[in-house]
Amino acid sequence: MSSNWLTLFIDSFPKILIPGLTRTIPLTVISFSIAMVIAVLTAMAQYARIPILSQIIRFYIWVFRGTPLLVQLFIVFYGLPRVGILIDPFPAAVIVFSLNEGAYDSETVRAALESVPIGQMEAGYCVGMTYMQIMRRILLPQAMRTAFPSLSNSLIAMVKSTSLAANITVTEMFMTTQRIVARTYEPLLLYLEVGLIYLIFSTLLTFLQGWGEKRLGAYMEKEA
Questions:
Q1: Which residues contact 209 (CB under 8 A, 6 or more apart)?
Q2: Cα–Cα distance measured from residue 205 to residue 48, given in angstroms and rounded to the nearest whole number
């Protein structure tokens, strides 16, 4: 039994890893990049306290933070075709993960912006800078340094959340594992194996997070 398990482990490892590198990681990177754009723009709009726009953004955040990610995936992939909107599995997953993550990260960035002393905004206006210039040159760089650990944790969590994309037929790591399980009837070994690969990805990202925090800490000390 042990030799059969070892053979299956060695044979299935690249079959699971390759979809991880070609599907799971690209899905994570693309979705998180779009989510960061959404988060920064919505956080800036909330910080500016534009009445109607802020209310729309609060509604968006309320909806996506208050409903399960799996339900959102099902609505976009299985529900929208009922009204004539058909989206392929991978783009559907990107849309949902981006909007969901953007809602959470928006609050992180907003809190980081509000942690920057208001006097810096006033000082920027005093020297003739526009709101966008103050944001780009003064507030956002400081806020993003503050938000970096939380955003890094969100990225690591997203890598694991991409396994839900298997429910809308995205052939990422978890779906590939399910197919191998259906053929070999070895769920324990194979699910442990895919868990190990997720752990490897998360560990590498955790290492990069620690390296990034050290670099940011050294930069801030130098600036001080």
A1: 149, 152, 153, 156
A2: 33
- Residue 133 token pair: 């210039």
Question: What is the reported pLDDT for 219?
Answer: 59
- 62 — pLDDT class (breaks 50, 70, 90): very high
Amino acid present at 185 = Y
Q: Indicate the domain borders of the chain.
A: 2-223
Closest CA to 27 of 74, 90, 100, 105: 90
- pTM of model > 0.85: yes
Please state which CATH number belongs to domain 2-223. Answer: 1.10.3720.10
Give the other-Cβ count within 10 Å of 86's Cβ. Answer: 8
Dist. CA 156–CA 48, nearest whole Å: 30
Q: How far apart are CA 80 and CA 12, in angstroms?
A: 35
The separation between the first and the last C-alpha atoms of the chain, rounded to the nearest angstrom, is 61
Measure the CA–CA gap between 186 and 86, rounded to whole angstroms: 35
Q: Which long-range contacts (CB under 8 A, 24 or more apart) does 133-139 make?
A: 135/44, 139/47, 139/113
Tell me the residue ranges of DSSP E strands in the chain.
Answer: none
Are residues 163 and 172 in contact, defined by beta-carbon separation less than 8 angstroms? yes
